Nucleoside transporter/FeoB GTPase Gate domain-containing protein (Parasutterella secunda), 154 residues
Amino acid sequence: MSSENSKPMVTDVFVKGAIQGWGIATHSTIPNVLMAFVIIRVLNVAGLLPILGDIFRPLMGLFGLPGEAAAVLIAGWMSMGGGVGVAAALFDQGSLSVTDCAILAPGIYLMGSQLQYMGRCLGVIGTRGSMIPVLMGVAIINAFIGMFVMNIIV
């Protein structure tokens, strides 16, 4: 059997996957999470996080969350990694509890990275511009339903 027709060795597949995983981590995940920590730090230093919390407290209260949790959803809408990073930063500083993070998780993932996907996917496949707000709205409504249900569960 020639080497062209043989299956790759398990170690070769593993190494290739590890290299791809490293690329994803260093070019996407780590920068997004780092950006999230920086955003929270900037909001804290500028004194804007409490203001953001006050503005969004009524909406976030529907899900049993503090107003600052809106920062997680805003960051998650831009980037899932960013949303997770903001949640971790707010948890680290004591603004979010473990329960709050559990409630936010479906929101991050159901509407996560929409800003990125709008350009990467919807534009590429030729989605009509009038349909983009509908598609985004459905994901956001699903996220809110998911958080509402999670609030009941936890």
